[in-house]
Amino acid sequence: MTPEEVARASAEAMWRTDRASQALGMDILRIAPGEAVLTMTVRGDMANGHGICHGGYIFTLADSAFAFACNSYGRVTVAQSNTITYLSPGPVGETLTATAREVALAGRSGLYDVTIARQDGTVIAEFRGQSRELGRDIAGVLPADPREET
């Protein structure tokens, strides 16, 4: 399998049981080794007391993009820690896009940045996640490590 095929197979395997992302109406727009782009439309039931998207939903969108990016090598990888900085509101009805990219990968530890933006490109939050690979295969057949093919 190519690294791109491994990334797609990993995302498909994860998506089948990712009830949280599915329930929130997320869609995967792009998946590649170390990268993922997900969207989510802010529904009325996601609004906080100020009538804008609750920060927890924005965090969840970012966390899901982070998860798909760091699991794109075919191995079960979990969050070790993460932080988010909110910069601008997410209006109800707006489709938010979370773009995750790998910043560094050293052994079983990774660092990922996720930018969450509104449809007009306004960045509403920046998320940084640290990952830890657990050494187990995601899809049932442990592929050759695509990171070693470069």
TrEMBL record:
Pfam families with a match to the protein in the record: 4HBT
Keywords: Hydrolase
Thioesterase domain segment(s): 50-124
CDD domains: PaaI_thioesterase (cd03443)
InterPro entries reported in the protein's UniProt record: Acyl-CoA_thioesterase_PaaI, HotDog_dom_sf, PaaD, PAAI_dom, Thioestr_dom
Gene Ontology molecular-function annotations: acyl-CoA hydrolase activity
Gene3D superfamilies (UniProt xref): Hotdog Thioesterase (3.10.129.10)
Top-rank taxon, per record: Bacteria
NCBIfam families linked to this entry: PaaD, unchar_dom_1
Family statement drawn from the similarity comment of this UniProt entry: Belongs to the thioesterase PaaI family.
Protein's name in the database: Acyl-CoA thioesterase
